[in-house]
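Supplementary Methods S3. Complex input for the coenzyme A-bound model.
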Amino acid sequence: MKIVSISNNDPTIENLTQELIDIDRQCLGDLDMADEGDLDYWTANRKSTFAAALYDGSKIVGYIDLIALSNNGVRQLKSGDWHDGKIDQIFIADLSSHSTALYLIAVAILPKYRRQGWAKKLWNYSAEQFSKNGYSIRDIYAVTWTPNGFGFLKSFRPEIIGRDSAGHPIIRIKTLNGKMPIANL
Ligand SMILES: CC(C)(COP(=O)(O)OP(=O)(O)OC[C@H]1O[C@@H](n2cnc3c(N)ncnc32)[C@H](O)[C@@H]1OP(=O)(O)O)[C@@H](O)C(=O)NCCC(=O)NCCS
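Predicted complex, serialized as structure tokens:
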């Protein structure tokens, strides 16, 4: 098993992105319900995202995807009028600005690989990469769609700051000195 960052310059970025969408479909069942947009939309947003994939051999079996939010984006998310499949460009920030709020747009592990700490390892790997590249993370936001999702984020002391239009909790996780908290394995 290995964890690999997905480079936005990867010539196969479209294929990789499709693989991530397939993982989502397998993990969340109904992609329309999850409202996460289509391949063109995902590919267009790659520049503002950091994603890492979990590989078993040559197959992706899980991933994490974090997107940089602008101040407008944070305000919009807090308002609850938020749809992962329709994030406007004014709501996302350029990751290269090196100081940003993050939105955890996805974390998903195929059922066979769950409860073995892989989501935590993907999280910690992301934290290390941001740190290594000198990013200062303001806060981390998420909308928790599932009990497992909330269970996973619970150890980071999430604060529920609102609800989206479907009633899912909108949460904020504090960073310390610009660093993401690390999960205990
Ligand atoms: C959420 C998800 C990514 C967790 O992946 P995972 O690799 O099983 O998570 P980990 O093994 O790293 O577990 C981390 C912690 O999350 C919590 N957790 C994980 N699954 C949980 C569940 N079913 N119920 C409650 N808590 C859970 C636990 O605190 C766990 O720590 P522990 O095993 O030491 O008790 C996985 O369940 C998944 O892909 N679910 C479907 C997609 C999804 O719901 N994504 C989140 C949308 S908001």
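The chain has six helices and seven strands. Residues 10 and 16 are 9 Å apart (CA to CA).
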